[in-house]
# Entry
Amino acid sequence: MINRSLIRIKTVQILYSYLLTRSDFKLAPAPIATEASRDRQFAYSVYLDLLVLLLKLSSVPVGPDNGMMLPPDQGLKKNRVARAIAGDPAVRAALTADSSRIRKFDSCLEDLAAALVETPVYKEYKRKRKLRMSDDVAFWNTVMTTVFRKNKTVERVLRRDEMFSHVGFDMGVNLLVQTLSGFDDTRASYDKAREDLDTSLRQAYDLYHALLLLPVALTDIQLQRQEKAKQKYLPTEEDLNPSTRFTGNLFVKALRECAELNDYVLENPDADPTGWRDFDSAAGRMLDLVLSSQAYADYMETEAGDFATDAAFWRDALRNIIFPGDELAELLEAKSVYWNDDLAIMSTFALKTVKRSYSMPDKDDAEDNGADHYGRIVLLPMFMNEADERFGGELFELVVDNREKYRAYIDRFINPAVWDTERLAFMDIVVMLTAIAEMVNFPTIPVPVTMNEYIEIANDYSTPKSGQFINGILFSIVQMLNDEGVINKK
# Structure
């Protein structure tokens, strides 16, 4: 099971990478009239005009006075580019500064919409079942360069400007293409970061299954060793008739027969540790450590046939020998950059699963009470509930959408005589942004829980003094937001 502690860690990790490398979508700046040529000035006017046309053809409101709007059934309803652009404050301010610009294409809007839907590029666009932001950007870039640039109606409207020139027209189209392409790059990095967050959470659940399968893998290696010993030139009696106490472990048998576990591994091959690089050699060393342990010696003295004893042995071996060992750490590091961080939490849930398999009433009592999973493996779900499943994605989006406002909270309580805000550890900033987003937007999570969780993350992933520093800043922010009524938690 993936709990909120691990979700917080992964959200901070992905946010750190995303915010460090992102380049925000920006409206192209207007040229300075005294310095720019007539062509450049006209090009910028064309640039804004075509933005208006894009929004209107998408049935997206431009401003308080929209002028003519296409009915929703005529606009490009699924066009996310238009919705995203219209939501940018800089775009809205630039387009609504001149009311005549908003109405410039009103007289021919329906004709342009009718012409657009007949073009091959539109028909190909509509045939796609799952449209991504990159599809929307590619569609509008093609429309602007191959449809509207050559459309006589569009040219006739733009010719009303006394500074009209074909050079300026081309420059305006190219400027819009550059803006849309830049937006595509930004959105693509956002979508990838969100996908990376979901992937890292899913991989953590893969690890949970892989840890449960380690007893099966080590048992198979021991079976292979025993079979190889039988093929020796002069096998001993022990080689020919090895003990089955270890290889006949009932808990391992239950793991092999767990349909849910087998089905998951079939769909998620990374959850099968036997497929990892260098697994055989590392697993052989793990097995040797288990076989040379006192826990193994004590287990071999017990009588066969008791599921609880067999499961308890593997729980002890996993907890005290395998999970803390260097062999597993090296395997995880080679397989996933996240798994060594995930191990502490996912190993806890793997051990909990083992314990649950035998911490049931007596078998007869279990049957009488309807508890038919005595001696069976009952896997934990990926998330405890739907709220936990949504938690990471919602937290990520809240930080991205409000990062400037939350950063202002942080800067307000940093003493510039002591700290240069531009030289703070970026991980500290990300940790605090995420903590603020959680405190402001998740009313059921107590402030002390949020504070403690993110201070621990800072201690583990940032500088030695980060925890104390973040504690002081967050405490001041909480007091301010409580006073302002933004949050109502103690």
Remarks:
- The radius of gyration is 31 Å.
- The CA atoms of residues 230 and 236 lie 8 Å apart.
- Residues 362-373 have pLDDT under 50 and may be disordered.
- The longest helix spans residues 166-230.
